[in-house]
Automatic annotation (TrEMBL):
TM segment ranges: none
Phylogenetic lineage: Eukaryota, Viridiplantae, Streptophyta, Embryophyta, Tracheophyta
Domain of life: Eukaryota
Record family assignment: Belongs to the bacterial/plant glucose-1-phosphate adenylyltransferase family.
Protein name, UniProt field: Nucleotidyl transferase domain-containing protein
Signal peptide: none
Length: 486
């Protein structure tokens, strides 16, 4: 059994309005004597270093731009009320925490988060989790929500359009590079190595590619890379088979050519001047970074290089990918979450320790503040404030957790007959196997969530669940009556 317990001190919530955030950020910078816990001081990891030839350190010369994620039908219903970056992962975290933590641990301390789709939950999380980050000069995590102006009365039309319309914010500091990051990936990366590679090669743009492509598709584009890591071609949704996606270790094909196809991760380092030139001069109508800006930069003669990454990386772009990422987090919990030199940050919640009665728990992750009675949990992720009653069996599943504790007397006072006597959590003698139970769901007694008929796809939203890739997903706030069989 592996349990992670957040121990961060609490911080006041900041409003998400851009100008009010800036005011709060400046206020934080003035009160340097604030007693913040040491883990929030972004001391760089021992293995991280900045090139000695660079005059300015990364925390002054690089700004990160993190995208919260747009509408994605493959993740529905997990994105019904939240953006991709706000989806809970590994019991205590949100997906975007992985990306923000990589920035902090790499001493990249100017972080902008651009949000638009279903952004309320994500904006709240970012402001509560990282409001105490502005300890010194120019250190911040700033949320930029989609906005309308006299010049642009529509919403952001894509990643490139969003960056173009926010350049007036990004140009506030004299950085030399922008680090563009999707906010819904799970990985650990040293961005210092990436930036150093970008500067050493004198590239205009550097794209992070996967050195082993056997388990990943090319959803963020496919790069044709020569023997010097120069990207000669970039395409979206290319018609390439897995045989075409050779690993970087074997650059030479059997026909003697010295190029290979490498899938992109959607992570880019772009020079400040190059970014401004592309968005304001060369490709003024481009809306998307991957499908328009990157191919356009190559066609305009810019030097685009590939930086190979061989670590664990998961693009959580579908229900199946989300399930696999959580199951993988059980196996990789120590390297992903227990590195004290490069920790994974999240929102401090001040929850009590999880209580376990006669629970039998193996190969699982249990979040903070859970109440587990006489139950069996195997190979599962159990999120915060989850209540599991007696004689429950949970196998290979994800229980996202709850926002509140609901006591029996609270349930009895409610007039809704459907919810009467079914409180938030898992009722007695229920069994759950290979399922995702979203937040605040109410599972009655003697419920079997086991995909009895081995269905691959089914839409039963009216009944409180769907099935995606053979995985049952219980909707947020759903009520599953006693004795139900799914």
């Amino acid at each position: 059994m592996q349990i992670y317990s957040s121990s961060y001190s609490s911080y006041s919530t900041k409003l998400t309005n851009l100008h009010m955030i800036r005011s709060s950020r400046n206020h934080n910078q003035e009160r340097n004597n604030y007693n913040l816990k040491q883990i929030f001081v972004p001391n760089s990891c021992p293995n991280l270093s900045v090139s000695n030839t660079q005059q300015l350190p990364l925390n002054q010369s690089v700004a990160a731009i993190v995208f919260g994620g747009g509408p994605d039908s493959e993740l529905y219903p997990l994105t019904k009320t939240r953006s991709k970056g706000a989806i809970p992962i590994a019991a205590n975290y949100r997906l975007i925490d992985s990306v923000i933590s990589n920035c902090i641990n790499s001493d990249i301390t100017k972080i902008y988060a651009i949000t638009q789709f279903n952004s309320t939950s994500l904006n709240s999380h970012l402001n509560k989790a990282y409001s105490g980050f502005g300890l010194g000069k120019d250190r911040f995590v700033e949320v930029i929500a989609a906005y309308q102006s006299l010049e642009d009365q529509g919403w952001f039309q894509g990643s490139a359009d969003a960056i173009r319309r926010c350049l007036w914010v990004f140009e506030e500091f004299p950085v030399t590079e922008f680090l563009v990051l999707p906010g819904h990936h799970l990985y650990r990366m040293d961005y210092n190595t990436l930036i150093e590679d970008h500067r050493r090669s004198k590239a205009d743009i550097t794209i992070v590619g996967l050195s082993s492509a056997t388990d990943h598709d090319s959803g963020f584009g496919l790069m044709e890379v020569d023997s010097t890591n120069l990207v000669t071609k970039f395409t979206i949704n290319p018609k390439k088979t897995q045989q075409d996606l050779i690993s970087v270790e074997s650059r030479t094909r059997s026909d003697g050519t010295s190029s290979c196809y490498v899938p992109s991760t959607g992570i880019y380092v772009i020079g400040r001047e190059q970014m401004v030139k592309l968005l304001r001069e060369c490709l003024v109508k481009a809306k998307d970074m991957a499908s328009e800006i990157i191919p356009g930069a190559i066609s305009h003669g810019m030097k685009v290089k590939a930086h190979m990454f061989d670590g664990y990386w998961e693009d959580v772009k579908s229900v199946g990918a989300y399930y696999r990422a959580n199951m993988e987090s059980i196996k990789r919990f120590e390297p992903l979450f227990y590195d004290k030199q490069c920790p994974l940050y999240t929102m401090p919640r001040c929850l009590p320790p999880s209580f376990m009665g006669e629970a039998v728990i193996t190969d699982s992750i249990i979040g903070d503040g859970c109440i587990l009675d006489r139950c069996v949990i195997r190979g599962s992720v159990v999120g915060m404030r989850t209540r599991i009653a007696n004689e429950v069996i949970i196998e290979d599943s994800i229980i996202v957790g709850s926002n509140i504790y609901e006591m029996e007397e609270d349930v009895r006072r409610k007039g809704n007959e459907k919810k009467k006597e079914i409180r938030i959590g898992i009722g007695e003698k229920s069994r759950i196997s290979k399922a995702i139970v979203d937040k605040n769901a109410r599972i009655g007694q003697n419920v079997m969530i086991i995909n009895r008929d081995n269905v691959e796809e089914s839409n039963r939203e009216a009944e409180g669940y769907v099935i995606r890739e053979g995985i049952i997903v219980i909707l947020r706030n759903a009520v599953i009556p006693n004795d139900s069989i799914i």
